[in-house]
Amino acid sequence: MVDATRAYFLIVGMWVRSTMAYRLSFVMMTLGNFAMTGLDFVAVAIMFSHIDALGGFTLPEVALLYGTTSTSFGLADLAFGNMDRVGRRVRDGTMDTLLVRPVPVLVQVAADRFALRRLGRVTQGAVVTAWALLRLDVDWTPVTVLLMPMMLVSGAVIFSAVFVAGAAFQFRANDASEVQNAFTYGGATLLQYPPTVFGTDLVRGVTFVVPLAFVNWLPALRVLGRDDPLGLPGWVDFASPAVALLCAALAGVAWRVGLRGYRSTGS
Amino acid sequence: MGRVDGFIELEGVEKVFQVRRRAGLLRRERREVRAVDGIDFRVPRGEMVGYIGPNGAGKSTTIKMLTGILTPSAGRLRVAGIDPSRERTRLARRIGVVFGQRTTLWWDLPLRDSYGLVRRMYRIPDSRYRANLERCVELLDLGALLDVPVRQLSLGQRMRGDIAAALLHDPEVLYLDEPTIGLDVVSKAKVREFLRDVNAEQGTTVLLTTHDLTDIEQLCKRVMVIDHGRLVYDGGLDGLHAVGESERTLVVDLERELPPIDDVPGARPVKVEGPRQWLAFPATRSAAPIVAAVAERYPLVDLSVREPDIEEVIARMYADRSAL
Q1: Which residues, given as ranges, of chain B have pLDDT below 50?
Q2: Can you give the residue ranges of every domain in chain B?
Q3: Rounded to the nearest 10 degrees, what angle do helices A240-265 and A142-172 cross at?
């Protein structure tokens, strides 16, 4: 684990240096990334200039949902976001060069083309979250204080697991990166709105099929002091870390299966 | 025990791929492709072996199994006593791999940075790293290139850079997949000289695949030929001629135009051009009695013997196999 982390940062360092070979382009991309994700929330804010509440949620409440999701997703995207290059690497044969190094392939693929500009989204998410917390009148108990970081970290782990699982799937179907994007980017967009906006069936699907709801809906509702639309028992709000661990384990298994499949078919 | 047997060992190794092909709108046909169909060979430590065969013969598949990239479908495979597919990362520290058509260098960074990553990834001790880098730089003529971004290097320079990168961690085995493909004559010569040196001085076991038979002629005493997933030849370069039924050619210049020389035992006329005639005879036979017989019966002015072209020999081997 220590070795793997060290290797990850070694490769990340190489990519950061590579990026700095084109310094101007890096600065532009980072600003662009920040602006793009920022506009995303501006759209939500503009919507609220016409309505007072969305599904019963006020703008600061939506901002909390949005900001925490965006931060979690941003962190996962930063660390694992380039895993959708697995399909391409399989197709052009460069996957083989990763397999002959004394470092886990997962680490090499995760660090592949590491893009520091993705800090743009993390920054934006953090800013929106901070703003929301300032505007909201949260009942700060030890529980809610603990829930916030737990929510962010679990969320990042769950999104990362989806990235890894998606990449594992690409060993089978090497054009699967779009399917994966539907879950990751699509999932992130879904979570940025209050759950009551969507139909109950959709919410149920999201909770159980892809446990993205654990990223922020359930814990965030607790922070906001609201009931969840499905009426699940209260302890579920605290299940995020367990769900995150389970997701990570499943993604790990999927990755192993995918890699083993690749090594037996070579395609 | 393993040491006596060989450093690289393959016993009945097979690799079968399931290929699915569209056969109609929704129907898929499943087909088995035996890329490697029962291969046995042993390579002792320190040997340099050429591994050749036509495209799709199973060369790359073999290399991929030897590096642990692919898991064999059947058979036993050991490199330095390690089962590559089970202990791929452990083996990775002891082998060096160069894929001729895929660089492992960092495109936008100077060569030196790529080497730095190798040093840290393989945890190469400082003194070893410095000594190895120095040697590679000197022999592969990389001095002026170390601080140049890889994207600015020529193909030959990059290949030299890649070979150096594969040797910094003192691998015991070096696999080279088409190391001279697309290189100019000067780069080819430099690469060959370097490989010979590494093999002789470091005792590195080298297995190389190539389409350029000059590589084999200049580097390898032993050559293995694979076709349709089977080893069709394993032995010295000379032996290839016997197996391939290759022929040497005796070119004779006579005093005047004469009918084709068809009365010399063991030789047959293949071409006549004025007073010059070409006689073919098996490469395994001595030229002396044939020369003597011709000189005895015909007015001889001059003569020369042409060695068989190895490419022709191998082309004939492939052709024979596919005719079966």
Answers
A1: 1-4, 324
A2: 2-241, 247-307
A3: 10
Q: Given CA atoms A14, A16, A18, A21 in this order, what sign does their dihedral have?
A: negative
Using a CB–CB cutoff of 8 Å, tell me whether A173 touches chain B.
no
Q: Is A94's CB within 8 Å of B70's CB?
A: no
| Fold adopted by B2-241 | Rossmann fold (3.40.50)
A102 chain-B contacts, CB cut-off 8 A: 89-90, 92-93, 121-122
Q: Work out whether strand B28-43 and strand B8-22 pair parallel, antiparallel, or are unpaired.
A: antiparallel
Chain B contact for A101, CB < 8 A? Answer: yes
Residue B166 confidence (pLDDT): 95
Report the SS3 class of residue A57: strand
Helix and strand tally (H, E) in chain A? 12, 0
Output B323 or A132, whichever has higher pLDDT: A132
Q: By CA distance, what is A15's nearest residue in B?
A: B106
Establish if A20 touches chain B: CB-CB under 8 angstroms: no
Tell me if B306 sits within 8 A of B265, measured CB to CB: no
What Å distances lie between residue B258 and A15, A136, B117, B253, B266, CA to CA?
74, 111, 71, 11, 20
A7 contacts in B (CB within 8 Å)?
121
- Whole-angstrom Cα distance, residue B252 to residue B267? 12
B221/B218 Cα distance (integer angstroms): 9
Q: Which residue of B has its CA nearest to A8?
A: B121
A264 contacts chain B (CB < 8 A): yes
How many CB atoms are located within 10 Å of the residue B209 CB? 25
Residue A196: predicted pLDDT: 64
pTM: 0.80
Inter-CA distances, A136 with A54, A213, B118, B282, Å: 16, 21, 51, 95
More confident residue, A179 or B176: B176
What letter would DSSP give residue A235?
G
pLDDT in tens, A16-63: 999 888 889 888 888 888 888 888 888 888 888 888 888 788 899 889
Closest by Cβ to B69, choosing from A7, A263, A267: A263
Q: How many CB pairs under 8 A join A and B?
A: 67
Per the model's pLDDT, the better-predicted residue between B6 and A131 turns out to be A131
* Inter-CA distances, A129 with B16, B133, B215, Å: 54, 50, 64
List the single residue in B with minimal CA-CA distance to A266: B70
Give B20's strand partners: B30
- Please give the C-alpha separations between residue A164 and each of A9, A159, A254, A260, in angstroms, as whole numbers: 18, 9, 8, 15
Q: Structural domain boundaries of chain A?
A: 2-265
Spatial distance between the Cα atoms of A147 and A236, rounded to a whole number of angstroms: 12
Question: Is pLDDT at A71 greater than 60 in this prediction?
Answer: yes
